[in-house]
Design brief:
185 residues, mainly alpha, 0% strand, elongated
Length: 185
Amino acid sequence: MNEQIIVITLALAFAILLLWLLRPRQRSAEAAGPAIDRALESALPKHYRFFPQIRQALSAGDNQYLLEVAPPRVAGQVLRERRAVARSFLRGLREDYSSLERLARIVASLSPVLSRQQELERVLLGLRFRLLYALVQMRLFTGRVPIGQIERLTELIGRLALRMEQAMAEVGALSEDRLTRGLNA
């Protein structure tokens, strides 16, 4: 009798284990798609798109109008707040660049053909961004708002974002081509 209970218990445990292993997975390829899209979307830059509003707020004409119309104390306060906004925008540009740099490393690791020239370009672009970033930060610290240099930083991020989209499309096309060839073989 005891042996029968043990055998039945083991059979039930085995059946439950087998059913648990055969159950459909919650994280299928369709469920993983949106997660990958969200991760990819978080890697793409977001702050650089607000440059037109920043340029308007920091424009010399806007500052001149403020100095003519507002009392000196209020104008000084507004100009300080605008520099704070420029510093915040600059931090956002740094976040954008860091995200793109991380994405570039991922795309480079997925790329079957990675040339030294491309890698050198990525390193030089990083150096250029960091130097220009430090220069803009220093000028903001001294009270100036170098709108032209902020614009160059923004353009640099925009070009890098475009380059990353193109590289991702190329890697995707190469992967698709490999998959097609593998299935046909």
